[in-house]
Specification:
The protein has 64 residues and is mostly helical. It is built from four helices and no strands. The protein is globular, with a radius of gyration of 13 Å.
């Protein structure tokens, strides 16, 4: 639903990077390069961003 505030595995704060990551990927930039630019080097943090599905807007439409 919403990106976790901290990485589930290592505990690094990552939530503040989610919007910038989405904007850059929507522009057509390579996710690998965006993650490098944001400073996410650990595989646990990177996998959190690459596998996250943002369902908050979808759920808001269903409840209407």
């Amino acid at each position: 639903m919403i990106i976790p505030i901290r990485c589930i595995s290592c505990g690094k704060p990552v939530a503040q990077l989610w919007e910038e990551f989405n904007k850059e990927v929507e522009k057509g930039n390579d996710p690998k390069k965006v993650l490098d630019k944001l400073g996410l080097k650990r595989y646990c943090c990177r996998s959190l961003f690459l596998t996250h599905v943002d369902l908050i807007d979808y759920m808001a439409e269903i409840k209407k």
